[in-house]
Amino acid sequence: MEQLSDQVMAFIPLFVTVALVVLLLLALHWLLLARHPEMGNERRLPRQLIMLVLSLAATVLIAIALPVSESTRNQVIGLIGVLVSGLIAFSSTTVTTNLMAGLMLRNTRPFRVGDFIRVGEHFGRVAERGLLDTEIQTEHRELVSLPNTYLITNPVEVVLSDGAIVSVTLSLGYDLHHGQVENLLIEAAGEAGLAEPFCQIVELGDHAITYRVSGLLSEVKSLLTTRSNLYRAILDTLHGNGIEIVSPRFMNQRQLSETTKIVPASVIKTASTELSKPEEIVFDKAEQAQAREEKKEELKSEIKALGVQMKSARGDDKQHLTEVISEKTDQMTSLEHPEQDVDSEQQGSARQPSSPK
Predict the structure, then answer these.
(1) What string of DSSP letters covers 292-327?
(2) Residues with Cβ within 8 Å of residue 132, at least 6 apart in sequence
(3) For the whole model, what pTM was predicted?
């Protein structure tokens, strides 16, 4: 009976250690991760690494608390080290490569949140930048996560935020003088809202001349809308001047005279024909992410300027500046956790008493 009691007493430190370690890990998991479900990958990764290191440390503590001899305990700890080293050796290649690529992208800063980028066959606006991958929102409102190694091993085309060139290429027959076509295409680019439009002849084909009309777009957020407007303006301008946009090898089974042109009848634009901007629907997440980043940068600058003022402030002025800095700090926190603000507003509206009828 005494031997059984001694054995039970020997396991008590192990049970206590396991219980404390499990409770501590659960509490830290809730504080760092579970209560922030809306947290992005960029801010989640450091916390996940902290939980991984703490879990390894907890495993070593449990091994130390085992009621075995010192040599056996050392063997168990050595076995844990071998297992961890093996896991790192097998999995660290991809993770480490993406991590280093993410750090490289942060230092070089080839693009920012909200920028239009094209990598290979992928095109969209940057919605989130992480240490392991970068998330873009495509023209179809899909979210695509690109590994950072893919971004540093492939050319990245970035649309500059201060202006981009919008171009359209089309082919017209040799029966049209290039001077007339160039003037009409430049006129169409101006009607589409492009600045400094210009036209180029890019190819003299066997049956047609290939033209490219381009212009500067200062507001890159409306890239899709402006490109569509440019197509529409080219159709209206060329058809309005009696120029048909059709292949010289065009063949129709209907009998047409030589003077008949394939030009649709002009229509009067009405309010119902005006299209809404697709960017407002397609790039909603990227737009919100860019707005948050810009607001955070603005708040950081304001807090830095207020901190400089506090060094020379005294009395009530210093107290006022402290309150303003605290308020702006709270605003930055709310920008990092936008979902919490939405939930709090909904809960606040739910707690408001209904007005008597």
Answers:
(1) HHHHHHHHHHHHHHHHHHHHH--HHHHHHHHHHHHH
(2) 41, 45, 95, 98, 99, 102, 147, 148
(3) 0.54
- CATH (one of 3.10.20.30, 3.30.70.100, 3.90.230.10, 3.40.50.300) for 164-246: 3.30.70.100
* The two three-digit tokens of residue 227, written as one number: 């490109």
State the architecture of 116-159 in CATH terms.
Roll (2.30)
- Please list the pLDDT of the chain residue by residue as tens digits (357 residues): 566 666 667 677 778 888 888 898 888 888 877 777 666 666 666 777 788 788 888 888 888 877 777 788 788 888 888 887 777 666 667 777 887 888 888 888 888 888 888 888 888 888 888 778 888 888 888 888 888 889 888 998 888 777 888 899 998 888 889 999 999 999 999 998 898 999 999 999 888 889 999 999 888 888 888 889 999 999 999 999 988 887 666 665 667 677 777 777 665 554 444 445 666 666 666 777 777 777 877 888 888 888 888 777 777 777 777 888 888 887 777 766 554 444 444 444 444 444 443
